[in-house]
């Protein structure tokens, strides 16, 4: 059977010898598109442009720090405890002491979400915006940005799936010659679908009705997809081989439950007010 052979160079171009990765370009593209959408949302709701600037800055900071710390503490604690500088710097120190640019090897979406929520609480304190309304606002576009990140993972031939003989299997030649599930594409499609549902909910409810619905929908759809897709993904670290559910699945469950609670609470409150 003919499978899809994937051997793209993760480096899109070099500027003065410095590598520009497809991952970075896709991350920037997803961020710019998300900000453009949020700019329209802010305008429609009479929210100051200055607040959006603060929101973007804090969101990026919270997502990055949360995702990076989440990966380092949950998946590779022993390594990063011995190499703390590599947590925040995109480098690797080889055994001979030489330092090489490596990019950030490892981000955890669960940690990113926690970091983002903390950042949104800070944003609400600084601007006077309601916390739940703030979370709904950014949750509207968060799956869109996450989808672009998963496409970046595809460009890097990382977060690969387990072996399969399905006709759409990918052979990630930079990893091995085994046909595998393109788990990155599965997740990207799930996230783009979630974004589409969020847009429909926003057009129906706006930001002032059914508070928590956008955030709840995002949590349920994103982490339900993550939970299911983990079954066809390679385990990230060896200790997960001894687990019935991997770390990503275990951490997804409380987020799904929180999302269900927010959805029920928001939709029930909206209907009870007759809106």
From TrEMBL:
The keyword Lipoprotein is assigned to this record: yes
Pathway annotation: Protein modification; lipoprotein biosynthesis (diacylglyceryl transfer)
UniProt entry tagged with the keyword Oxidoreductase: no
Main location: membrane
One example GO MF annotation: phosphatidylglycerol-prolipoprotein diacylglyceryl transferase activity
Transmembrane segment boundaries: 20-42, 54-77, 97-119, 183-201, 213-229, 249-268
Entry's Gene Ontology cellular component terms: plasma membrane
Binding-site residues, a 1,2-diacyl-sn-glycero-3-phospho-(1'-sn-glycerol): 150
Enzyme nomenclature, EC number: 2.5.1.145
Subcellular location: Cell membrane
GO biological process, one term: lipoprotein biosynthetic process
Membrane topology label: Multi-pass membrane protein
InterPro entries in the cross-refs: Lgt
Function, as annotated: Catalyzes the transfer of the diacylglyceryl group from phosphatidylglycerol to the sulfhydryl group of the N-terminal cysteine of a prolipoprotein, the first step in the formation of mature lipoproteins.
Family: Belongs to the Lgt family.
Entry-linked HAMAP family: Lgt
Protein name: Phosphatidylglycerol--prolipoprotein diacylglyceryl transferase
Organism for this UniProt entry: Butyricimonas faecalis
């Amino acid at each position: 059977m003919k499978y899809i052979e994937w051997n793209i160079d993760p480096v899109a171009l070099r500027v003065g010898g410095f590598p520009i990765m497809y991952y970075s370009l896709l991350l920037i593209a997803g961020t710019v598109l998300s900000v453009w959408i949020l700019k329209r949302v802010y305008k429609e709701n009479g929210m100051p442009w200055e607040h959006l600037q603060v929101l973007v800055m804090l969101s990026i900071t919270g997502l990055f720090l949360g995702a990076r710390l989440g990966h380092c503490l949950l998946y590779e604690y022993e390594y990063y405890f011995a190499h703390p500088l590599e947590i925040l710097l995109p480098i690797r120190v080889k055994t001979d002491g030489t330092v090489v640019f490596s990019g950030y090897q490892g981000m955890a979406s669960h940690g990113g979400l926690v970091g983002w929520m903390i950042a949104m609480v800070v944003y609400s304190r600084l601007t006077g915006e309601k916390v739940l309304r703030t979370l709904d606002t950014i949750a509207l576009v968060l799956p869109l940005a996450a989808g672009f990140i998963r496409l970046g993972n595809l460009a890097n031939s990382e977060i690969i799936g387990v072996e399969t003989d399905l006709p759409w299997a990918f052979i990630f030649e930079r990893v091995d010659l085994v046909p595998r599930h393109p788990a990155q594409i599965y997740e990207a499609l799930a996230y783009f679908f979630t974004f589409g549902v969020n847009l429909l909910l926003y057009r129906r409810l706006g930001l002032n009705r059914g508070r928590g619905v956008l955030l709840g929908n995002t949590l349920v759809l994103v982490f339900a997809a993550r939970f299911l897709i983990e079954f066809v993904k390679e385990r990230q670290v060896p200790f997960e081989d001894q687990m019935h559910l991997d770390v990503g699945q275990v951490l997804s469950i409380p987020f799904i439950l929180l999302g269900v609670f927010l959805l029920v609470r928001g939709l029930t409150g909206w209907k009870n007010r007759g809106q």
